[in-house]
Amino acid sequence: MARFRNRLKLRSLRQLGGDESGVIAPMVAMLGVSLIGAAGLALDVGLYYQGNRDLRAATEAAALAAAMDPYNAKTRAEDYLKRNGYDAAVLKTVETGRYCADINTAAGQRFDPTMARCPGNGLRNAVRLTTDKPSRRFLTGILGDASPIPDLGATASAARIDEAGVSVTSDVLTKVVSPVLDPVTEPLVSVVNNLLGSLLGIPIALGRNDVRNLMKGNVDAGDFFDNLAAKEGFEGTYGELVNQSHKLKDVAEAAADAAETPETAAALREFARQLGGSGYSVPFKGLYSLGVWQNMPVGEADEKPGLRAGMNAYSLVTYAVQSGPTAIDLSKAVGLLVKDSAVKIGLVSSGMGDRPRFAFGPAGEAKVGTSALRIGILIDLPVNLIGLASVNVHLPVIVDVGAAQAEVSAINCTGSTEQARDTTVAVRVRSGTVNAYIGDTAFDPMEKSLPVMGASDIRQAKIASVNLLGGVISADVKGKAVVQPVTGTGASDEALTFGTGAEGATTPSTPQTIGHSVQIGKTLSSVTTSLLGSDGLDVEVKLLGTCLIACDLLKASGLATVTGKVLPAVVKPVTDLLGNTVDPLLTDLLAALGVQVGSATVLTTGARCGVPVLI
What we know:
The protein is of the alpha+beta class. 35% of the residues lie in helices and 26% in strands. The strands form six sheets. Strands 11, 12, 15, 16, 19, 20, 21, 22 and 25 form a nine-stranded antiparallel β-sheet that branches. Strands 2-1-3-4-27 form a five-stranded antiparallel β-sheet, covered by helices on one side. The chain has a five-stranded mixed β-sheet with strand order 9-13-5-26-24, with helices on one face.
């Protein structure tokens, strides 16, 4: 019996040793502290990531708010943070600087606090904020400084760029945009075709409607540059695109695809068709200034910040053509109009000078100008004074035209939701000065390089040969004259405002003109007339054969006749020729080139009130 009980006890002990039903409780007791610690750590880590995400979002939003007015960035950022539940103390640093739109720079490095990399117009248009605050900690808070959970922190940079487009163009475009009488005359169309044809070396025959539709039509700048890049398979930045040369036919076709009206597109395509297989290459360098887009990749005209501005279609074509050789001789055209005369008109341009023709950018950076021009007019004209003398007039005239310039001085973006209606653009404009000379120079003033020339460079030239008494007495008249300057405006600068947001302002894209166009005929007539009182006038009297009787008297008489009667009598036919023939011809020629003598016509081609963006 005892043995049985012992066996039973031994078997119970064996069963109890293999029973694991009570293991969990001791394990929970042993691991409880670790489980609570892990849960607390997970909670603290989750709170850290959520808090960091929320703080980053708030910091970015505060940076966007501050970028609306970088000069009050701290106040705007603190106000935004407080209105969104944060203490202003979370804002640790506020920096202001410039936005550098460089595709070779990482997005986070496009903020330039020193304004050394991207000085632009010297105005700050970007901000960078840093924020931090302690993270919410539960279990790990008891570790104090040894906590593995760091403080929350964020950095955000944002910029806002208000930009406008501006161009300087011919007064003829003003009349086309708001016509009273159609300014596109047949003579103007003839000059346009002759001008383009002579520059390109191929016949151009645009119709009157083609010229009119080009002059009154615009091309979307962003689409034009993107279309041109696509045609050429170009990959790079807008700045690189406008620093290269492009086939004129590609330019015309790309512009047609970006034209704002079907009529303008058709005129551009007709021009492209007439170019045929011409490989005429147009250097764009110096022709366009694209502001922030110069460092952005082509194909992104519709990306923020989008390149939205217009360019006049006619200006686009003629300015592109002018970037090539611009030696023009219209002597044949004048000869057909004036019998027995030889009036030669030559024109030389310095190219773009120190300003592009079209610019789009912030205030203080968007600057444009016309070319500096030099017009050489050589007048050879026989004048018969019945019963007195015969005179052969020879007048070498030079007209120097300084470049007209315009600069966007302010872009006033309102808080209105109708920015296209309420935005105003202020432009500071200076019309070109005009200097006129008669005489010779020691150098060729009509060289393509357009050498600098002033009154001191003008010397006497033979301006007339006079025969008196059937050639018994002859005289060579030498002289020089300077009219300097003839200006188109009494003030050096004039302020214009575009946009309906200011009283008295005009709508964008409506051209405005300052100064008064100088009429070449009147200008040259005044120079010619001034010869009579010129201190540089010199008359050399010659006698036919040997003087036997009263030589001195004849000389004196001849001199008196030449100076007292002959020269004043010569002025009228010369001024008639200038006023009736040369002046209208040059007016059309300059209009075809997009140049006004003594004045400037300016238009804004679009404005963009920048939406703040993170950079």
